[in-house]
Amino acid sequence: MQYLLLIYGEERSEAAMPAADAQSMLAAFGAFTQSIAESGALVHSNRLRPVSDATSVRVRDGKTLITDGPFAETREALGGYYLVEAKDLDEATAIAARIPSARFGTIEVRPVWAM
Amino acid sequence: MLATLIRLTGSFDLAEEGLQDAYVAAAKTWQATPPSHPRAWLIRTARNRIIDRLRRRTAFVAHQGALAALAEIEAAAQPPEDDDEAMFGDDLLRLIFTCCHPSLAREAQVALTLRTVCGLGTPAVAAAFLVKEEAMAQRLVRAKAKIRAARIPYRPPARELLDERIEGVLATIYLIFTEAYAGDPRRSLAGEAIGLARRLDALMPGRPAVQGLLALMLLQDSRRRARVGPDGAMVRLEDQDRALWDQGQIAEGLALVERALGSAAPPSSYAVQAAIAALHARAGAAAETDWAQIVELYGVLMAIHPSPVIELNQAAAVSLAQGPAEALAMVDAIAARGDLAVYHLLPAARGHMLRRLGRRDEALQAYRQAYGLARFAPDRRLIESEIAALSEA
In A, which residues are within 8 Å of B104 by CB distance? Predict the structure, then answer.
């Protein structure tokens, strides 16, 4: 079954991280991604650009409304995702717990609707 | 048996329905032909009934849900031939850990555990928490839906997660013990909570955290008959008739505290709370209580798991160990932080301390504040009588 692992973090503290820490975080992500690719759990993943680069789109009464920013201002913002294949929730949460930024932020684990 | 059926069918609802059908069948045939292994018979019969139901649903139309359920049953293990205690024990553990899975909201864990592990009816579970039956039924439906949709696994957790998950189970059990009483301590589900802890201890023996919780609940429950007076008012521990305390539960609780604290590991919060309860249980009268040691134990508890309620309890003990003036300072400090603003026991404690200090008018004011905050009648009655006693003096 597929689960989407949504990576939430505080952009401000991430930006304020010293360069060396940011580098090792990046390396940790690289190693993690590789390991789940090798195990076959990885379906897809991406890092997202910050919410300052986000655009929100709504269509109401036939009109398309486009605004700057994410759909809601939240303390932790969505920074990336992993789509993984796992046999059950415990396996999915075990993968999520290994995501390097889980120590600072939150990983939301959402089961994908089976079609 | 429900636990085993859930494993064999992959569904809480199907298992429940099947078991009901099996009971009906048993009522019809057991008098004439009693089975040698009744539980295995019930499980086998339940499973057959479930398969029949599902096949009927797919007889004319390819009902996707029923087909999937049938496939799952056929892929699962065969039903047991006989009453295999070890297997039933394993299945019960699966059920307990699934009901108490951390991805379910705590109140959902409580509802599911009471319903499926303890076998309580939905109305009884709803009543215990002063929730409408419909709302409780919905809570159960959503919990089972989440187990299905998120695929919460039906098995005990991996070894590295076991300690953490056991903590979760214990927290749910303790919540049942402390919160399921519909405002009247005489209607509590303490017995169910104690039963759950006993079963957990039997299935996973030698765990100090489990022993600590079981000890705590036994010692607290031992005071059950003394806790509410004939007039329906709460009776404070210092004023309880100790002849009404259950000595059997006390003996068992004291033995368990020894074992829980005997391990090399740092003590669990439950074990320390049990040690405090043990000091009360050992005292023949309130005046004989080792209040100084209780104050120290609350200090240990604050170090493990600080909370304003524990701090308040420590202040109450300080009041008796050192004196009301020191205790009042502690209580005022809690109130100054804004903690426990709607907890009636805080102004009630202030009232006791102010009364002992001879500050009568302030004591009455504090008691009135406590009265306004008290949610349930037994607590209000106690405060009423304290106000009455003080007003007459």
Answer: none
Q: Which residues contact B310 (CB under 8 A, 6 or more apart)?
A: B298, B301, B302
Q: Examine residue B86 and state whether it is found in any structural domain, yes or no.
A: no
Tell me, yes or no, if B292 comes closer than 8 A to chain A by beta carbon: no
Burial of B39 (0-12, 13-18, 19+ CB in 10 A): middle
Is A1 an interface residue toward B (CB < 8 Å)?
A: yes
List, for chain A, all residue ranges whose pLDDT scores fall below the cut of 70. Answer: 115
- Say how far residue B72 (Cα) sits from the centre of its chain: 33
Residues 6+ apart with CB under 8 A from B361: none
CB contact under 8 A, B103 and A111: no
What CATH superfamily is the domain A2-49+78-111? Dimeric alpha+beta barrel (3.30.70.1060)
Distance CA B272, CA B260 (A): 9
**CATH, residue B339:** 1.25.40
Q: Which of A87, A90, A109 sits opposite B157 (nearest CB)?
A: A90
Rg (CA), chain A: 16
Q: Which positions in chain B touch A111 (Cβ < 8 Å)?
A: 149-151
Instruction: Give the residue numbers spanning the domain of B339.
Output: 307-393
Residue of A nearest to B156 (CA): A90
Q: Is residue B205 part of a domain?
A: no
Examine residue B223 and state whether it is found in any structural domain, yes or no: no
Q: In what order do the strands lie in the sheet with A42-47?
A: A42-47, A77-85, A2-9, A106-111
Q: How many CB pairs under 8 A join A and B?
A: 23
The partner residues of B144 in beta bridges, in order of sequence, read none
The predicted complex's ipTM stands at 0.90
H helical segments located in B64-118 = 64-75, 85-99, 106-112
Burial profile B46-83: b = 16 or more Cβ within 10 angstroms, e = fewer: bbebbbebbeebeeeeeeeebeebbeebeeeeebbeeb
B14-30 pLDDT tens trace: 999 999 999 999 999 99
Q: Is residue B380 in some structural domain?
A: yes
Record: contact A111-B150, CB cut-off 8 A = yes
How far does B155 lie from chain A, in Å, by closest CA? 10
Q: Do B103 and A1 touch (CB under 8 A)?
A: no
Q: Which of A88, A91, A112, A115 to mutate to test the interface with B (most CBs of B within 10 A)?
A: A88
pLDDT at B385 over 80: yes
Count how many domains chain B has.
Answer: 1
- Top pLDDT among B247 and A14 is at B247
Contact by Cβ (8 Å): B67, B58: yes
The DSSP result for A28-63, as a single string, is HHHHHHHHHHHHT-EEEEEEPPPGGG-EEEEEETTE
Domain spans of chain A? 2-49+78-111
Segment B133-143, tens digit of pLDDT:
999 999 999 99
